[in-house]
Design goal:
2 domains
Length: 210
């Protein structure tokens, strides 16, 4: 959204005040119609699934060590008790560190998103800018996500023009069925393409962190 505002500002400076026009796009609809975006999203989600499994295996290891200690602690001398406790704490620390590495801001998930998805998103923004410049639009608002615009008439939605600029035939995405002109121009928060990578790690992988 911030990039769209920057684009709009640049266009505003480039055209006379009397020629200012306004338009909107639905980036969720546009992205969901791009095969390369869906492919990138699937790749990111595969990494997420692998990392969740990795965390779950680490959690199971910690649980097993703790359970064994609880069952055997009354038989152990103090020095062995301390050693087993230290081992459990070490495994718990490794689990927390791995979770941070994978899912914390700036971690592996964010890096994979930037590597695989950002190039496609940048291509969309560049196409929006090209359409806006060709049509002399001063501002282009994004109707997906937060409701920054309460109403936009259908005729001002240029989502399909952006898709054509990207070489994609416009039409509702097969998975989401998003239609940029649905609702007679009312601003509705459009559903974004399903992205499992945005979900928090499973409860089992968070057990030791909470």
């Amino acid at each position: 959204m911030r990039k769209l505002i920057i684009i709009a500002t640049l266009i505003l400076l480039a055209v006379p005040a009397r020629a200012q026009k306004y338009a909107s796009v639905n980036t969720a609809y546009i992205l969901s119609n791009l095969p390369e975006y869906n492919q990138a999203l699937n790749k990111v989600n595969k990494y997420v699934d692998e990392w969740r499994s990795e965390l779950e295996a680490k959690q199971a290891e910690v649980d097993e060590l703790r359970q064994r200690y609880e069952q055997e602690s009354y038989l152990l001398p103090e020095n062995l008790k301390q050693r087993r406790q230290d081992e459990i704490r070490t495994k718990e620390s490794e689990l927390r560190n791995l979770q941070q590495q994978r899912f914390a801001p700036g971690g592996d998930l964010d890096q994979k998103r930037a590597e695989l998805m950002k190039p496609v998103q940048d291509r969309v923004y560049n196409a929006i800018e090209r359409v806006a410049r060709e049509k002399n639009y001063a501002f282009v608002f994004d109707r997906a996500g937060s409701a920054t615009v309460l109403y936009v008439a259908d005729k001002y939605d240029i989502s399909n023009q952006v898709l054509e600029m990207l070489g994609v035939k416009p039409g509702a995405a097969p998975e989401t069925g998003i239609n940029p002109n649905a609702g007679g121009g009312k601003q509705n928060a459009a559903p974004k393409p399903q992205d499992k990578s945005r979900q928090a790690p499973s409860a089992s992988s968070r057990k030791e962190i909470m």
